[in-house]
């Protein structure tokens, strides 16, 4: 994403103009734009004119519109869902690596022009390489601004291509800093060995499966792209070795030197415990990957989440989760690392967002670490399941004791209020 | 393959019609007077008269007659058409009620051998496949030719010790690596039992496959390696001996035969045998097996000692101190659990392959009810249904198969794309329920990282595993009384018994929730075998439980 223009005053009001370039930028915009903001972007509107004779005429006009945002919708069209298809070649998306994410902003028009009346409803489809101006009345808080900073960092596209496979299933994932995209899925049925059918059906189906993987790899993983830093083949059992060897031998056979070199230089084989996509978290924890990619966002997130779970196992009093509990811990200055999902900042209530921003700022002021998880990564999804917020404490605190303290404080406050009420009356 | 049409078929058909007619007659009278619906009354009368007259017209009432009239008016009901219709797919031979009686009679018959499913479990390299290969040979299920071929093949590959195991480890990769990777299904026949053997892989990586086999089992045969250091490795916390035992127990297996294998390698040391038995016995009791239902037997699979008999020189040292039953004696005494044959039909599919004839073959164990040739079955999830063309049990074609039987069904007029492992076949009238979210009572195993709400797990249900989350921790329960100890616990740590809500997860990261497909599952109170679940995470089993209720 490119920063075209930025004006934010110290109160946090102002506007930022950004030029999105790829899917990830759409995701950034989705996280930046909130209900109540003013967004100006080029768009197409169908305009109807009624001539003096009463005949209607409609035509499409390209114009710039400013909306007061009512709703923002993000959709990244995921991998084709025909998961149980026996012949996956039919449902492969032809688009390949073309832009798949879309951002729709709906709201009422706030700037009138000759085609559109004030207050008319409109939905902006944000397009790549078209400037978007976002204006917030007083909403440019620290989280939003740091998001802008992150978004405009150069470094494009997928950094890691990963295949999570098992016998008969494979998911092709593309990981960039803020997004994991499941580009393609293969699910073929492999007959198991049995007395009646023997092993021949099993082996035939396996060979076909490997061929399918090879073809899908060519189509969905940008292996020739120099920005792709690693190709990970992860699986339980020995499937990853077989897949790796098959691809190497197939690349040699077909004389595909680029693929051969890419596999030789960038491919890792990582053991995971299940063939589901959520094993990506295990991939990101594995030593082979962390040493290679430790500065990437997804690796940091994976490590942070892992640390949280390990702490939960070893010292339950130092691993807290849930908005209320984490807020208590923040009040007591106990937080060492805050894990928070970007989903919480997308709350439609500005007050809720403010609450979380306040927690983040308070924690940062104390010099503690804050990791904002992207819910487009598997680790972020898992954090979302765990209420979206968790914290590693620097010293143990008993949840029940703290809860009791809070209750007491609450009661005291109420009593005081009652007393002041009485006194005033 | 077209089998001869049984002569009793037309008679049976008419009888079935009359059965349905009587039932409709029996059910209508209480309704008609209440509602005072004259039209309905006349309809039943009409139906009555047709059925009493004994004509071939189906007693379906006015609607069917009207249709037939229309058809005859169009001159379509020619004779050839009628015969064609009759000869089409194999018809259901007998009415359900009659069949149930027949099945009951057969099952109670003294002469009939009882069938049971046995899963063979144990740590990797304990000798499970070798023991089974040898047993198949001794009982005459593996012919001399196969045996010699396997010996020659394994010798060539430099793995002579795997000759017996090759009888079950059929795939190239299994033979090359010398380990079992997937369940192998074989049949044994002892004097009083038909045993379906499910030889499970012992390697940690393939526990999902082992679970698939254990879910189909009634009893278990645990094989342990008695040689020095090996037993300890397998019985260790990381070993599979413990995990397999806990898994089969959670999946409803109550009887275990423990075969202490490779005793020849410790020169048939009686003390060693005793030590191992004591250690295992304690663990079995702790895992919830009754001591009276666990049996121990010393064997040597390689030498074939104490499988069928203790003849020969190899068995000499054993004869000194052991005069108990042989392995086959013990297997012969295993009691199959009671089968519910009147329950709605449920067949969870564990394997699908192309049969020799047209159509598709599926393997599954019947979890309630009876299936017969010619029956139409619905496959869930999905919209497909198919007709049973042939039922194979132990490689023999049979007319029907009842609950508890592992059978191969050949289905026709079904789109195989709709079938996958984990699909449940059921009768179209009694469909299995589907759910994405359900509550379960679980027992948490010995885990390092406690279960938090939202924990990502793999849900194992029969032969299928799916990504899921523990979406809510409802309460922790007292193990003995089952009373609620604490509501809304923060985490579940090891050894706790708890009630939780489990939801299936979407497998795509960014997709909408609607992409989650519900799975066929039933509460434990409705069908025990359809209501058992296992939860795994990061390669270890973290909890086992039963489904309490389906949420949606």
Task: Give a brief rundown of this model.
Chain A is α+β, with helices and mostly antiparallel strands and 425 residues long.
Structure write-up:
- The complex is a heterodimer of chains A (425) and B (552).
- Chain A is α+β, with helices and mostly antiparallel strands.
- Chain A folds into three domains: 2-151, Pelota, domain A (SH3 type barrels, Roll); 160-295, eRF1 domain 2 (Nucleotidyltransferase, domain 5, 2-Layer Sandwich); 298-403, Ribosomal protein L30/S12 (60s Ribosomal Protein L30, Chain: A, 2-Layer Sandwich), CATH 3.30.1330.30.
- In chain A, 38% of the residues lie in helices and 28% in strands.
- Chain A has 13 helices and 16 strands.
- In chain A, the strands form three sheets. Chain A has a seven-stranded antiparallel sheet with strand order 1-2-7-3-4-5-6, covered by helices on one side. Chain A has a five-stranded mixed sheet with strand order 10-9-8-11-12, sandwiched between helices. A four-stranded mixed sheet of chain A has the order 13-16-14-15, sandwiched between helices.
- Residues 79-98 of chain A have low confidence and may be disordered.
- With 552 residues, chain B is of the alpha+beta class.
- Helices cover 29% and strands 27% of the residues of chain B.
- Chain B contains 15 helices and 24 strands.
- In chain B, strand 11 (385-393) and strand 12 form a beta hairpin.
- Chain B is globular, with a radius of gyration of 27 Å.
- At the A-B interface, strand 10, helix 3, helix 8 and helix 12 of A face helix 9, strand 2, strand 7, strand 18 and strand 19 of B.
